[in-house]
Amino acid sequence: MVCSLPSWLALSAAFLQTTLAFYPYQLSGDRPASHRRLPHPATDTRSLTLPLRRVPSRRQNAYNIVNSVDPKQANSVAVDQDGGDLSYMVAVKIGDSKEEYHLLLDSAASNTWVMGQDCKSEACGQHNTFGRGDSGTLKTQSDKFSITYGTGSVSGTLASDTFHIGPLSPSLTFGLATTVSAEFSSYPMDGILGIGRGPGSPILLDTLAASKLISSKQYGIHLSRATDGTADGELNIGQLNKERFSGDINYIKAVDTSTGFWEIPIDNAGVDGKSLGLTSRTAVIDTGTSFILTPPLDAQALHANIPGHKQDGETFSVPCDTRAVMQFTFNKQVYNISTADWRGGKLDSGLCRSNIVGRQTFGDKQWLVGDVFLKNVYTVLDADQGRVGFGVKSSVQEQSKPSSASSSASASASAGVKPSQTGTIVSGSASRTSAAGSQQAAPSTAAVEGTEQGQKTDAKSAGSRLRRGRGVAGSLVLIFVFMVL
């Protein structure tokens, strides 16, 4: 179903008259993103099969993309990824084009853009591009847009066409990029799908609601973990997928700001059940950010409770066998962050890098909370009520409260928590293992996570497909806001 919108609504739904930075972040120890080959997911190849697929196009996206299975939930679309949990994307079609465009799912931006066919930048030559030759219904405009970010920019003109997002097909005004900086050569997305709040202007959800395509302005987000092999990420639009979480959603009222972020208060943070007293902080919830970035002193406080950690400027390294569990508290509910998510790859030093970085991106009390945390929960972005919600993923068992939080191992043992055959710690009554962190009942709750090798599951039945290519995805921290010139 396609419904036309007043031109002012379509325009304002796509672009806000504000500007901020795009922030590509690379952890120390990484080779430059543009020179890295994307590895297959770190799972046992005997149990994981990823058939290779090529999609013909005039200007081929040359990057590895693991396609998720199509969700059964109504008004939903699969969330694909790069195979390394660095960038999560939604495949869309535009107008009457048969081409697929992978757009980064970005909850810190309210705007949408795609690389245009007139773009001569090197990055555009490595991605799928869109233009008049692709859709007979495309309408271009003379209005220009510009995105500024840390070391470069994206700019172009506005255009309008029908966006096919899963079963939904709203009319949308979006950016058609004609100049794209070299940074985008390192990332697999062909553009951005903004699902931010949008201060003072309608957002994509408003467009869908005005078109009578949805009855409730909210998103439900499940991000998959590559090493799980399930390839089942999904974006639910207008209604939640109750099969993705158990119990009730814990809602937190969003902070009213002019930025349009999904920003919520943080009650506290801790490690292995030890409260660190990090109160009066807020978290910008960002699906377009791979890591967790906090002000330097907060990052130091988190890592200070991990024996054997080392600091190198704003980055940290930890023993690769650490079993420490990071914990964030929102609205009196404590959430574990899986060790497999916050502990990164091995460095030449023999230590492993931490995916929690000590860099101040906004104010001295603001954290940028990305996929390292979001993979552990089912996330709800509710524009009707101005709130963010987290649910316990239905495949994750809520863990028992330990008698002591001084040691995660002894605490789990005293609570009757046992390691599964795959090395992931779950409730003794659980019939299924998962690498995701679990929601906890009290700040003193602790859990023990196994190693990344302990998360091997069979993805063949999930029907995941790896789009073969030569590009890579670097460590990704994305914050996009547009400025209409």
Structure overview:
The protein has 485 residues and is mainly beta. The protein folds into two domains: 7-223 and 462-484, Acid Proteases (Cathepsin D, subunit A, domain 1), CATH 2.40.70; 226-455, Cathepsin D, subunit A, domain 1 (Beta Barrel), CATH 2.40.70. The chain is 8% helix and 32% strand. It is globular and about 60 Å long. The two termini are 32 Å apart. Residues 1-22, 29-59 and 396-485 have low confidence and may be disordered.
Number of strands: 33
CATH evolutionary superfamily of the largest domain: Acid Proteases
Distance N to C terminus: 32 Å
Number of helices: 6
The parts where pLDDT drops under 50 for at least 5 residues are 1-22, 29-59, 396-485
Strands ordered across the widest β-sheet: 4-5-10-6-9-8
Q: If you average the pLDDT, what whole number results? A: 76
Assign the CATH architecture of the largest domain.
Answer: Beta Barrel
The tally of structural domains comes to 2
- CATH third-level topology of the largest domain: Cathepsin D, subunit A, domain 1
Biggest β-sheet strands, sense, barrel? 6 strands, mixed, barrel
CATH hierarchy class name of the largest domain: Mainly Beta
Radius of gyration: 21 Å
